[in-house]
Amino acid sequence: MRRMGHGLHRRVRIEPGKRADLAKIDADDTLGLERDEAEELVRERQERLEVLQGYLKWGAAQALVVLFQGMDAGGKDGAVRQLVAGLNPMIVNFVAFGKPTKEELAHDFLWRIRREVPERGEISLFNRSHYEDVLVVRVDELVPEPVWRPRFEVINTFEAELARQGTTVVKFMLHVSRDEQLERLAERATLPEKHWKHSADDMRKRGQWDAYMEAYEEAIKRTGTEVSPWYVVPADRKWVRNAVVLDTVVHTLEEMRLPTPTPPEDAAEELLNRPAGD
Ligand code: AMP
Ligand code: MG
């Protein structure tokens, strides 16, 4: 029997060194999935994720960083929530990277990221990341090009070093269309329950759309590697986004070849044969 949704991760993976032509990647793509099939797949992968996180914790030799980038209202929060649903709070650490504080700005751009790299056996989910330092920083010209451009190399070295030490970094760009983004931003501006996410700055950044796409394309091309590839996820439909993200994270953990715990054969027997009242 064909495994459900087999190979979704492969469909959205950007081959290292290749340019992702974002204008040509359909944000509304369903990847041939039906909604109920996608939701079933999410449940199945969440169950598998629960098992794999236990192996990760038990082995305590490897770790995982899952990072999300994308335009405002691209679904970074939502994707994180779907992942967290399958994870144990003792094993997963969630971090959102906003505008750097004064203290963070006084250090190199990776300082705040390094502090959030998970310990062995654990998982960190990043809502935004060190990539902001070659995205918003580039588009808003927060530092000159000779400062941000060398960061591609710095990032590659950083991620390669993490990989060597057993920490895998998986990178998602949640790709929404301009129309879908506008709809979501309008909801944030008007619906009381969504208003907490509203930010006037989002409309300004929306006006820089093309500059952002160019910055994303170059970042993806320059930092996609075999050990740490980029996945560009069609994100107009939340159920497609969730299925792709869960499938990719589970695939990544399977590829990490986590050791399977081997409880001693007599352990259960010993417990069951304890005297009554113990
Ligand atoms: P949000 O994700 O909606 O909470 O917004 C966080 C904001 O912080 C976004 O506008 C990001 O572009 C911004 N941000 C994140 N990292 C950086 C950075 N390194 N430099 C400047 N702005 C950043
Ligand atoms: Mg925001």
User: Widest sheet: strand order?
Assistant: 1-6-5-2-4-3
Percentage beta strand: 5-15%
CATH architecture: 3-Layer(aba) Sandwich
In this entry the ligands are: adenosine monophosphate, magnesium ion
- Large-scale geometry: globular
- Number of beta-strand segments: 6
Q: Report the CATH topology name.
A: Rossmann fold
Cα distance spanning the termini: 46 Å
Percent of residues in helices comes to: 40-55%
Quick one: biggest sheet? 6 strands, mixed
CATH superfamily: P-loop containing nucleotide triphosphate hydrolases
What is the CATH level 1 assignment? Answer: Alpha Beta
Q: What is the SS-derived class?
A: alpha/beta
Number of domains: 1
**Rg over CA atoms:** 20 Å
**Mean of all residue-level pLDDT scores:** 95
Uncertain segments are none
Name the helix and strand elements from N-terminus to C-terminus, one letter apiece: HEHEHEHHEHHHEHHHEHH
Number of helices: 13
Give keywords.
6-stranded mixed β-sheet, binds magnesium ion, alpha/beta, Rossmann fold, 278 residues, 12% strand
Describe the protein's architecture and organization.
The protein is α/β, with parallel strands linked by helices. It has a single domain, classed as P-loop containing nucleotide triphosphate hydrolases (Rossmann fold), CATH 3.40.50.300. It is 46% helix and 12% strand. The protein is built from 13 helices and six strands. It has helices at 8-12, 35-59, 76-84, 102-105, 111-114, 136-139, 145-148, 151-164, 178-190, 200-206, 209-223, 238-255, 266-272, and strands spanning 13-14, 63-70, 92-96, 123-127, 167-175, 230-234. It has a six-stranded mixed β-sheet with strand order 1-6-5-2-4-3, with helices on both faces. It is globular and about 70 Å long. The model has no long low-confidence stretch (mean pLDDT 95). Bound molecules: adenosine monophosphate and magnesium ion (MG). The site of adenosine monophosphate (AMP) has 13 residues, from helix 6.
